[in-house]
Amino acid sequence: MTRALETVGDDGPLSVEVIHRLTDLADVPEPMMIAEVSELLGISPHTLRYYERAGLVEVARDSNGHRVYDAHAVRRLVFLTRMRLSGMPMRDLQDYISLVDAGEHTVPERLDMLVEHRDTIRRRIRELTLSLTAIEYKITTYGGATGPDVPATGAATERAALPQERPALRAG
Predict the structure, then answer these.
(1) Tens of pLDDT along 81-121?
(2) What residues have CB less than 8 Å from 71, skipping those under 6 apart?
(3) 19, 30, 106, 146: which could form a disulfide with 150 (CB 3.0–4.6 Å)?
(4) Residue 132 pLDDT class (50, 70, 90 cuts)
(5) DSSP string, 90-122
(6) Distance between CA atoms of 8 and 15, rounded to whole angstroms?
(7) Rounded to whole angstroms, how far apart are CA atoms 17 and 7?
(8) pLDDT of 7-20, one tens digit each?
(9) Strand, coil or helix: 55
(10) How far is CA 90 from its chain centroid?
(11) DSSP helix/strand/coil, 14
(12) CA 57, CA 48: separation in Å to the nearest integer?
């Protein structure tokens, strides 16, 4: 995720182009060893081995038995790490990858899975946005400054805009 966020910057627009840049492995050496893939994706070698054991990615071995990742495996791992970060359960990822490996005739099922997961993420983003709003409110209540992306308003204005807290329910 760090690499993804560095690609777009703090306030850059998010688009499919970001994913294309992340999966553009033209400047990445091939084949890659587990430590290199771990560094590239910001996940541990243990996680990479777990994904392999779970059947999510196939990884070749060199003559010494060391894992050797090709571009296809790394691109799949980019997708897998994004889906895990988004909260997709391992069982769903395994089902999805099984569908991918089964062929093009499974595209409608994959689409359904992704649409459902997208809707779950959108709901979670709304929940997190509401939580962030509550935190920003409390910060301004205590006289603190909010981030540059939050409109500057005084605590009195914030209190007027949001329902009053009941004294018995006041937390913190």
Answers:
(1) 999 999 999 999 999 999 999 999 999 999 999 999 999 99
(2) 25, 28, 30
(3) 146
(4) very high
(5) HHHHHHHHHHHHH-GGGHHHHHHHHHHHHHHHH
(6) 9
(7) 10
(8) 556 555 666 666 66
(9) coil
(10) 14
(11) coil
(12) 9
Q: Return the structure tokens found at 85.
A: 């970060």
Distance in angstroms (rounded) separating the CA atoms of residues 66 and 33: 8
Place of tokens 């992704």: 114
Which pTM value belongs to this model? 0.70
Q: Can you tell me the distance from the alpha carbon of 67 to that of 12, in angstroms, rounded to the nearest whole number?
A: 36
| Distance of alpha carbon 113 from the chain centroid | 17
Cα distances from 17 to residues 9, 13, 20, in angstroms, run: 14, 10, 5
84 neighbors 93 (Cβ within 8 angstroms): yes
Contact between 35 and 45 (Cβ < 8 Å): yes
The number of C-alpha atoms within 13 Å of 122 and in the hemisphere containing its C-beta is: 6
